[in-house]
Specification:
It contains 16 helices and 22 strands. It is an alpha+beta fold. The protein folds into three domains: 185 residues, FAD/NAD(P)-binding domain (3-Layer(bba) Sandwich); 133 residues; 107 residues. Strands 9-8-17-18-19-16-20 form a seven-stranded mixed β-sheet. Strands 11-3-2-15-21 form a five-stranded parallel β-sheet, with helices on one face. Helix 2 crosses helix 15, helix 5 crosses helix 16 and helix 7 packs across helix 9. The longest helix has 20 residues. It starts with 11 loop residues before the first strand and ends with a helix.
Length: 524
């Protein structure tokens, strides 16, 4: 295995299907709808095998929720902005393979030294210096955390908590998808402070409160980032804005492979037939005939396109698409301040129990454009995130949330209270998928009723231990592989953390505990 994939010796290598012939009499044409991570992964997988690819993206920028572009401050100064902070974890193997197409050694990434968590009581946890190998990472974290008092850990219900120790994908969804994360954590008697600080911080990274999130997704996440991987919980971030660090180079790479990219154009519907298998219509009145289509949009976009494309799918599949839910809104507030923050501030701070604030980023610590601005003005560029907001947006509500965010910032970073806001950029978004209770069984998969129509995105079901950006990348590669296999061409290998609990002893203990619990329930 390529040592560049990751440091974990237990990485699972999912080998792509072998080619049947390796060459084509004619060159198939594929339209990829959506230029986010999923669409770009699918386009890359296809274009590298000689398939004709056209990517159609509704926004003026690529990257989807990891997109970046240039804006201006009130004085006219051009500044880099993006959709908000994202953590590129080391176990995002398939996403990192995509980025390596233009940055083989990932030199446009830098490691964040620490990832502290802070709650309203002043309790602080950190992932710095933890062992990387499970379960020692979890034991060391618990031993040094103020949120894991020994007296409360002794109360932990080992039987109820057993699924956390033996997560198996997709079996964990059969076990836990019927219950919400908050109820599950209460049932296992997880320490209250730790529940609010550690697990709530992670659940809200899915843009939903734990009362609405599936416990199966929480357990899978715990496996992916902690007990199932030895990559660690520290992560990398791009050293410049997303457009310059990630997507402009990849766009040039795709062009060199013969792919075409159109931005600022929305696909309105997909019609079966035309000169090829499908005819794709856009809002500019254009049409594109294709041998295959990959729909790699967000949930709302997918619902809209399928609703307006009566030729697609059967009744069951169409109902699954329309049943997809979006997560609650979130707000990203970027600030340009006229003075620096203290040197000991972390580049990223996650908060728990401090609504509406979920995290603070000091962008000038790692992002080139923000760093240059801060150096020229002896200032700072910060970003504040607020997740799981009310569904109804009003000017009064947004103003109140921004006021509360600033108050939290001033309390945590007192030196910012006297700073002048030179510029600010506010985004209110609601385009993330919801991973709610009972959703998994009905979630549409990559393959569809049409053998030449594929889905991709972080809201699409794939029975592998992946989440967030990595789920988007993995479904994109999988969509490309499914088409390449039909054309007799080689696919692309995928990599994941182990698909089941990595320690046999823990698996046996958990299985024994769960078996004993089931027997007792049957007896009762």
């Amino acid at each position: 295995m390529d040592v560049a994939i990751g440091r974990d010796r237990r990485i699972v290598h999912h080998v792509a299907a072998l080619p049947v012939n390796g060459e084509l009499a004619t060159r198939p044409q594929v339209v990829v709808v959506g230029g986010g991570i999923a669409g770009l992964a699918a386009a890359t997988g296809l274009a590298e095998r000689g398939i004709g690819v056209e990517v159609i993206e509704g926004q003026e920028y690529l990257g989807g929720r990891v997109g970046g572009w240039t804006d201006a401050l009130p004085d006219g100064t051009p500044v880099a902005v993006n959709r908000g902070f994202h953590a590129f974890f080391r176990q995002y193997y398939n996403l990192r393979q995509l980025l390596r197409r233009t940055d083989p050694m990932l030199q446009r990434m830098m490691r964040v030294d620490d990832y502290p968590l802070l709650d309203a009581e002043g309790r602080r946890d950190s992932f710095r210096g933890l062992p990387l190998t499970p379960p020692w990472n979890a034991l060391a974290f618990a031993a040094r955390s103020r949120t894991f008092p020994l007296r409360e850990l002794r109360r932990l219900d080992a039987r109820a908590a057993a699924p956390l120790a033996m997560v198996s994908v997709p079996a964990v969804y059969e076990q836990l998808d019927h219950v919400d994360a908050e109820t599950f954590l209460r049932k296992i008697k997880f320490p209250v402070a730790a529940r609010h600080l550690a697990f709530e911080v992670f659940s809200r990274s899915f843009f939903a409160p734990p009362t609405q999130m599936s416990a199966a997704e929480l357990a899978a996440m715990f496996h992916i980032y902690f007990l199932g991987s030895s990559e660690g919980l520290l992560f990398d971030v791009p050293t410049s804005n997303y457009d310059t660090a990630l997507w402009s180079p990849l766009s040039e790479y795709l062009a060199s492979c013969g792919a075409r990219i159109r931005t600022g154009t929305k696909v309105t519907r997909v019609q079966a037939g035309g000169d090829r298998t499908f005819r794709v219509h856009d809002d500019a009145g254009g049409v594109a005939d294709a041998d295959a289509v990959v729909l790699a949009t967000d949930v709302a976009g997918l619902r809209r396109i399928v609703a307006d494309s009566p030729d697609l799918g059967d009744a069951d599949w169409r109902s699954r698409i329309q049943a997809l839910r979006g997560a609650p809104p979130f707000l990203v507030h970027r600030l340009w301040l006229d003075r620096p923050v203290a040197q000991d501030r972390p580049a990223f701070l996650a908060t728990g129990g401090m609504p509406p604030l979920d995290n603070i980023s000091v962008l000038n610590r790692y992002e080139q454009q923000a760093g240059s601005w801060a150096e020229r003005h002896n200032g700072a560029v910060l970003e504040l995130h607020a997740y799981a907001l009310p569904d109804v947006r009003t000017p009064e509500l947004e103003r109140e949330i921004r006021t509360q965010l600033l108050a939290r910032l001033h309390r945590l970073y007192p030196e910012t209270a006297d700073a002048r806001i030179v510029g600010e950029h506010v985004q209110w978004r609601q385009d993330c998928p919801m991973f709610g209770v009972g959703d998994h069984a009905h979630r549409p998969a990559v393959r569809t009723p049409h053998d030449k129509l594929m889905l991709a995105g972080d809201g699409i079901r794939i029975d592998l231990p992946v989440a967030l950006m990595e789920r988007a990348a993995t479904t994109g590669w999988t969509a490309a592989n499914a088409l390449l296999t039909q054309w007799g061409l080689p696919g692309h290998d995928l990599y994941t953390v182990p698909t089941t609990g990595r320690h046999a002893v823990l698996r046996r203990l958990a299985a024994r505990t769960m078996s004993k619990t089931a027997h007792q329930e049957e007896t009762v």
